[in-house]
């Protein structure tokens, strides 16, 4: 009997060992130029150690643990993985094909929508961005019939089929021209709808502390809120609302974590006057956590943004306005906001963000070059790298988990052929949670298939 038990224990241990995640190992990347992604200068001949999917140490003089898998990065650059500050990766393969596009909904719900179940990790743009060094992305839905688009997520671009790092991370709302159009044709209507919705949510919360409903259960998730899940308590729910409500029950409950400060509200606004309205929200709802995306005219209200402490995920290098709300746009927008003390990072809203989030790296490099032009405001090299790594993570409240090579952060790392902010450099190895990722895409397959074919085996397009 004892022998049989020992055999079972041994077999179980073998199965557990086989089932252990690929990240359960120690990797030491040595000899490269290491940039931590926190704004500091690059470190020559540095070493990065990742154990069990987390960064253990990074810098000069870091000892290589016994038994570690050693990767020689001499002559290469090593950085944190790029975080797409604003994207819609995984929500669309072909925009014009309804069956391949889950960015927005014209259904009855808005704020209650959670885009996490719709994200497709096998979408072609996910693999393309991974091959370009993007390891995680802030993914937001698009608006349908409401200024509220729903709840966005942080995803990774790994090839394991499990993309969602943090679901229901933030609530996304459109102001400005698009919000005005959605809400009836004017900014006044959009701002009134936003405040009405937040007040409805505050009323639903009933002034209870800690996000608890009257029955003591959490109301963070509308699927778990008793006023929604239990039909017998609908009267309790209705008692907490006025008769002139505009939100569905699910939508109102979904906004409760926002007004209580437990979920970030990400607001798209470009014009200076709209940005001031977002700043004013903080005074009316002091517990609310806010972040702004876009902000083409942010430099004109930079001191106010800095004083508010609201982080900005800005579009880079916008100078020729494509709308009336961006008449004050300038290439120096991000540099000027940064100089004024605004917590700013780079996003790609309205910039083919379904596919081309990796452009953020190019923009960061261009901002470094801009800093060398007389009269222009750009970023230092360290600031520019941080703007596409740690800064967007911090804007989402996740700086302690992702975005840099500081100890304890997730082992998201890229080995580059050269300076990562140089457009000619390429990602040669990508690690997510300490696991090396494939860099093959549909495009690389087509390239490899056709670039060496003899012309004689190809069909002629025309014959004379």
TrEMBL record:
Keywords: Signal. Residues 214-226 have a biased composition (Basic and acidic residues). Residues 1-24 form the signal peptide. Residues 330-435 form the Amidohydrolase domain. InterPro entries: Amidohydro_3, Metal-dep_hydrolase_composite, Metal_Hydrolase, Metallo-dep_Hydrolase. Residues 202-236 are annotated as: Disordered. PANTHER family: ALPHA-D-RIBOSE 1-METHYLPHOSPHONATE 5-TRIPHOSPHATE DIPHOSPHATASE (PTHR43135). This is Amidohydrolase family protein. The lineage of its organism: Bacteria, Pseudomonadati, Pseudomonadota, Alphaproteobacteria, Sphingomonadales.
């Amino acid at each position: 009997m004892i022998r049989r038990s020992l055999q079972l224990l041994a077999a179980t241990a073998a199965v557990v060992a086989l089932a252990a995640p690929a990240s359960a190992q120690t990797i030491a990347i040595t000899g490269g130029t290491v940039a931590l992604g926190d704004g500091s200068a690059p470190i020559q001949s540095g070493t990065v150690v990742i154990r069990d999917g987390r960064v253990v140490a990074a810098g000069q003089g870091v000892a290589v643990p016994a038994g570690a898998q050693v990767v020689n990065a001499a002559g290469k650059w090593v950085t944190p993985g790029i975080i797409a500050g604003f994207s819609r990766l995984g929500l669309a393969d072909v925009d014009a094909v309804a069956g391949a596009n889950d960015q927005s909904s014209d259904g009855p719900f808005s704020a209650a929508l959670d885009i996490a179940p719709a994200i497709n990790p096998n979408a072609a743009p996910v693999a393309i961005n991974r091959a370009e060094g993007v390891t995680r992305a802030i993914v937001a839905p698009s608006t349908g019939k409401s200024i509220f688009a729903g709840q966005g997520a942080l995803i990774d671009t790994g090839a394991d089929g499990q993309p969602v790092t943090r679901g229901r991370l933030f609530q996304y709302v459109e102001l400005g021209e698009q919000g005005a159009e959605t809400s009836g044709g004017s900014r006044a209507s959009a701002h009134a709808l936003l405040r009405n919705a937040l007040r409805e949510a505050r009323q639903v919360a009933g002034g209870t502390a800690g996000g608890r409903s009257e029955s003591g259960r959490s109301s963070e998730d509308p699927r778990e809120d008793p006023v929604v899940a239990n039909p017998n308590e609908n009267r309790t729910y209705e008692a907490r609302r006025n008769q002139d409500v505009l939100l569905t029950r699910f939508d109102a409950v979904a906004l409760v974590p926002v007004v209580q400060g437990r979920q970030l509200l990400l607001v798209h606004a470009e014009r200076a006057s709209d940005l001031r309205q977002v700043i004013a929200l903080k005074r009316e709802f002091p517990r609310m956590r806010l972040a702004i995306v876009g902000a083409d005219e942010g430099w004109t209200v930079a001191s106010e943004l800095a004083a508010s402490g609201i982080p900005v995920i800005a579009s880079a290098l916008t100078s020729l306005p494509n709308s009336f709300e961006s008449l004050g746009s300038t290439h120096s927008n991000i540099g000027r906001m940064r100089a004024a003390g605004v917590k700013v990072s780079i996003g790609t809203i309205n910039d083919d963000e379904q596919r081309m989030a990796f452009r953020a790296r190019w923009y960061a490099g261009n901002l470094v070059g801009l800093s060398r032009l007389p009269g222009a405001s750009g970023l230092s090299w360290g600031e520019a790298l941080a703007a596409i790594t740690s800064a967007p993570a911090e804007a989402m409240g996740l700086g302690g988990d992702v975005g840099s090579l500081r100890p304890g952060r997730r082992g998201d790392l890229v080995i580059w052929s050269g300076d990562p902010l140089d457009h000619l450099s390429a990602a040669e190895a990508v690690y997510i949670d300490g696991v090396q990722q494939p860099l093959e895409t549909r495009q690389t397959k087509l390239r490899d298939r056709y670039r060496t074919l003899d012309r004689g085996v190809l069909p002629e397009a025309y014959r004379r």
